[in-house]
Amino acid sequence: MTTATLRRVVAPAILISALVLTGCASNATETEPEAGTDIQQTDVFTIADPWIKATDTDMTGVFGTISNITDEDFTIVSASADIADMTELHETIVQSDGSSVMQEIEGGITVPAREDYVLEPGGNHIMLMSLTGEILPGDTVSVTLTTDSGEEYEFDAIAKEYTGAQETYAPEHDHSEHEHEHEHEHEHEHEHEEHDHSEHDHE
Length: 203
Ligand SMILES: [Cu+2]
Fold this sequence. Notes:
Layout: E1 15-19, E2 39-41, E3 45-53, E4 59-68, E5 74-81, E6 84-94, E7 100-104, E8 109-111, E9 116-119, E10 125-131, E11 140-147, E12 152-160, H1 181-201
Parallel strand pairs: 3-12
Antiparallel strand pairs: 1-7, 2-3, 3-4, 4-9, 4-10, 5-8, 5-11, 6-7, 6-10, 11-12
The protein binds copper (II) ion (CU).
The site of copper (II) ion has 5 residues, from strand 10.
Protein backbone atom coordinates (compact mmCIF):
# COMPACT_ATOMS: atom_id res chain seq x y z
CA MET A 1 0.00 0.00 0.00
CA THR A 2 1.91 2.97 -1.26
CA THR A 3 -0.06 6.08 -0.55
CA ALA A 4 2.72 8.57 -0.16
CA THR A 5 2.96 11.50 -2.48
CA LEU A 6 6.01 11.51 -4.68
CA ARG A 7 7.28 14.77 -6.00
CA ARG A 8 8.67 14.11 -9.40
CA VAL A 9 10.67 17.24 -9.84
CA VAL A 10 13.04 16.97 -12.75
CA ALA A 11 16.14 18.85 -11.72
CA PRO A 12 19.26 17.79 -13.63
CA ALA A 13 21.48 19.56 -11.11
CA ILE A 14 20.59 17.05 -8.40
CA LEU A 15 20.86 13.96 -10.53
CA ILE A 16 23.70 12.40 -8.63
CA SER A 17 23.87 8.88 -9.93
CA ALA A 18 22.61 6.42 -12.45
CA LEU A 19 20.78 3.28 -11.44
CA VAL A 20 21.38 0.39 -13.76
CA LEU A 21 19.06 -2.54 -13.46
CA THR A 22 21.24 -5.46 -14.43
CA GLY A 23 18.84 -8.23 -13.55
CA CYS A 24 15.21 -8.82 -12.80
CA ALA A 25 14.22 -6.74 -9.84
CA SER A 26 11.26 -8.97 -9.21
CA ASN A 27 13.01 -12.33 -8.86
CA ALA A 28 14.49 -11.77 -5.43
CA THR A 29 11.52 -12.85 -3.37
CA GLU A 30 13.64 -15.15 -1.21
CA THR A 31 15.60 -12.31 0.27
CA GLU A 32 12.75 -9.89 0.67
CA PRO A 33 11.70 -9.38 4.28
CA GLU A 34 8.36 -10.76 5.38
CA ALA A 35 5.84 -8.15 6.34
CA GLY A 36 5.19 -7.46 9.97
CA THR A 37 7.97 -9.52 11.52
CA ASP A 38 9.90 -6.58 12.97
CA ILE A 39 8.09 -3.39 13.88
CA GLN A 40 9.96 -0.62 15.65
CA GLN A 41 8.04 2.28 17.14
CA THR A 42 8.77 5.93 17.85
CA ASP A 43 6.42 8.69 19.01
CA VAL A 44 5.32 9.55 15.50
CA PHE A 45 5.86 6.51 13.33
CA THR A 46 6.49 2.82 13.21
CA ILE A 47 8.89 1.24 10.77
CA ALA A 48 8.18 -2.32 9.69
CA ASP A 49 11.02 -4.65 8.73
CA PRO A 50 13.76 -2.06 8.48
CA TRP A 51 16.68 -3.58 6.61
CA ILE A 52 19.84 -2.60 4.85
CA LYS A 53 21.45 -4.24 1.86
CA ALA A 54 24.65 -6.03 2.87
CA THR A 55 27.56 -4.82 0.79
CA ASP A 56 31.32 -4.67 0.42
CA THR A 57 31.09 -1.59 -1.78
CA ASP A 58 31.02 1.99 -0.47
CA MET A 59 27.29 2.54 -0.81
CA THR A 60 24.01 0.84 0.03
CA GLY A 61 20.31 1.40 0.68
CA VAL A 62 18.05 1.25 3.73
CA PHE A 63 14.47 0.05 3.33
CA GLY A 64 11.29 -0.59 5.29
CA THR A 65 7.72 0.64 5.60
CA ILE A 66 7.22 3.82 7.61
CA SER A 67 3.72 4.31 9.05
CA ASN A 68 2.64 7.65 10.43
CA ILE A 69 0.80 6.87 13.70
CA THR A 70 -0.27 10.45 14.34
CA ASP A 71 -3.02 12.68 12.95
CA GLU A 72 -0.54 15.08 11.40
CA ASP A 73 1.74 14.79 8.40
CA PHE A 74 5.45 14.83 9.07
CA THR A 75 8.43 15.15 6.77
CA ILE A 76 11.74 13.35 7.07
CA VAL A 77 14.26 16.00 6.05
CA SER A 78 17.45 14.00 6.48
CA ALA A 79 18.95 10.73 7.64
CA SER A 80 22.29 9.71 9.05
CA ALA A 81 24.20 6.64 10.15
CA ASP A 82 27.53 6.24 11.89
CA ILE A 83 28.72 3.84 9.20
CA ALA A 84 28.19 6.34 6.38
CA ASP A 85 29.89 9.67 5.84
CA MET A 86 27.13 10.75 3.48
CA THR A 87 23.40 9.99 3.51
CA GLU A 88 20.63 11.09 1.18
CA LEU A 89 16.92 10.41 0.72
CA HIS A 90 16.52 8.97 -2.76
CA GLU A 91 13.77 8.25 -5.22
CA THR A 92 14.12 6.21 -8.39
CA ILE A 93 12.90 7.66 -11.65
CA VAL A 94 12.33 5.47 -14.68
CA GLN A 95 13.23 7.44 -17.75
CA SER A 96 11.60 7.28 -21.16
CA ASP A 97 14.35 5.02 -22.50
CA GLY A 98 13.65 2.49 -19.74
CA SER A 99 16.74 3.20 -17.66
CA SER A 100 16.42 4.28 -14.06
CA VAL A 101 18.18 7.02 -12.17
CA MET A 102 18.27 7.77 -8.47
CA GLN A 103 17.96 11.31 -7.30
CA GLU A 104 17.52 13.10 -4.02
CA ILE A 105 13.89 13.55 -3.04
CA GLU A 106 13.14 17.24 -3.28
CA GLY A 107 11.75 18.53 0.00
CA GLY A 108 12.31 15.29 1.90
CA ILE A 109 9.94 12.40 2.57
CA THR A 110 6.48 13.47 3.68
CA VAL A 111 4.49 10.75 5.41
CA PRO A 112 0.81 11.76 5.49
CA ALA A 113 -1.19 11.36 8.70
CA ARG A 114 -2.10 7.72 9.41
CA GLU A 115 -0.56 6.58 6.15
CA ASP A 116 2.38 4.46 5.03
CA TYR A 117 5.50 5.28 3.05
CA VAL A 118 7.35 2.37 1.51
CA LEU A 119 11.11 2.35 1.11
CA GLU A 120 12.11 -0.48 -1.22
CA PRO A 121 14.79 -1.52 -3.72
CA GLY A 122 14.12 0.07 -7.09
CA GLY A 123 11.95 2.70 -5.39
CA ASN A 124 12.36 5.21 -2.61
CA HIS A 125 15.19 4.52 -0.21
CA ILE A 126 17.67 5.95 2.24
CA MET A 127 21.01 6.03 0.47
CA LEU A 128 24.13 5.53 2.55
CA MET A 129 27.34 6.56 0.79
CA SER A 130 31.03 6.69 1.66
CA LEU A 131 30.60 3.69 3.94
CA THR A 132 33.31 3.31 6.55
CA GLY A 133 33.32 -0.48 6.33
CA GLU A 134 31.77 -3.65 5.01
CA ILE A 135 28.18 -4.49 5.96
CA LEU A 136 27.70 -8.22 6.48
CA PRO A 137 24.40 -10.09 6.48
CA GLY A 138 23.07 -10.14 10.04
CA ASP A 139 24.76 -6.88 11.04
CA THR A 140 22.60 -4.30 12.78
CA VAL A 141 22.97 -0.75 11.54
CA SER A 142 21.57 2.17 13.48
CA VAL A 143 19.92 4.83 11.32
CA THR A 144 18.74 8.23 12.53
CA LEU A 145 15.96 10.17 10.84
CA THR A 146 15.47 13.90 11.37
CA THR A 147 12.00 15.33 10.81
CA ASP A 148 10.87 18.83 9.92
CA SER A 149 10.14 19.48 13.60
CA GLY A 150 13.83 18.99 14.35
CA GLU A 151 13.28 15.74 16.23
CA GLU A 152 15.59 12.80 15.69
CA TYR A 153 14.39 9.22 15.61
CA GLU A 154 16.58 6.16 15.60
CA PHE A 155 15.85 2.68 14.34
CA ASP A 156 17.89 -0.45 13.70
CA ALA A 157 18.16 -1.90 10.22
CA ILE A 158 19.15 -5.54 9.82
CA ALA A 159 21.61 -6.29 7.05
CA LYS A 160 20.41 -8.77 4.43
CA GLU A 161 21.81 -10.17 1.27
CA TYR A 162 19.89 -8.82 -1.69
CA THR A 163 20.61 -9.46 -5.34
CA GLY A 164 17.65 -7.81 -7.06
CA ALA A 165 17.69 -4.23 -8.30
CA GLN A 166 21.46 -3.94 -8.35
CA GLU A 167 22.26 -0.33 -7.87
CA THR A 168 25.28 0.77 -9.80
CA TYR A 169 26.83 4.07 -9.08
CA ALA A 170 28.01 4.94 -12.55
CA PRO A 171 28.16 8.66 -13.27
CA GLU A 172 29.89 8.06 -16.61
CA HIS A 173 30.55 4.39 -17.15
CA ASP A 174 28.71 1.17 -16.47
CA HIS A 175 31.01 -0.95 -14.34
CA SER A 176 29.23 -4.20 -14.92
CA GLU A 177 32.19 -6.35 -13.92
CA HIS A 178 32.56 -5.86 -10.23
CA GLU A 179 36.04 -7.37 -9.91
CA HIS A 180 37.51 -4.83 -12.27
CA GLU A 181 35.88 -1.85 -10.63
CA HIS A 182 38.82 -0.85 -8.46
CA GLU A 183 41.31 -1.05 -11.30
CA HIS A 184 39.12 1.18 -13.41
CA GLU A 185 38.64 3.61 -10.57
CA HIS A 186 42.38 4.01 -10.19
CA GLU A 187 42.79 4.55 -13.90
CA HIS A 188 40.16 7.25 -13.84
CA GLU A 189 41.76 8.90 -10.84
CA HIS A 190 45.03 9.19 -12.69
CA GLU A 191 43.31 10.51 -15.76
CA HIS A 192 41.57 13.17 -13.70
CA GLU A 193 44.77 14.14 -11.95
CA GLU A 194 46.59 14.67 -15.22
CA HIS A 195 43.61 16.52 -16.60
CA ASP A 196 43.51 18.77 -13.56
CA HIS A 197 47.17 19.65 -13.90
CA SER A 198 46.80 20.68 -17.52
CA GLU A 199 43.81 22.82 -16.63
CA HIS A 200 45.69 24.57 -13.87
CA ASP A 201 48.51 25.40 -16.25
CA HIS A 202 46.26 27.94 -17.87
CA GLU A 203 45.81 29.88 -14.65
CU1 LIG B 1 20.04 5.83 -4.07
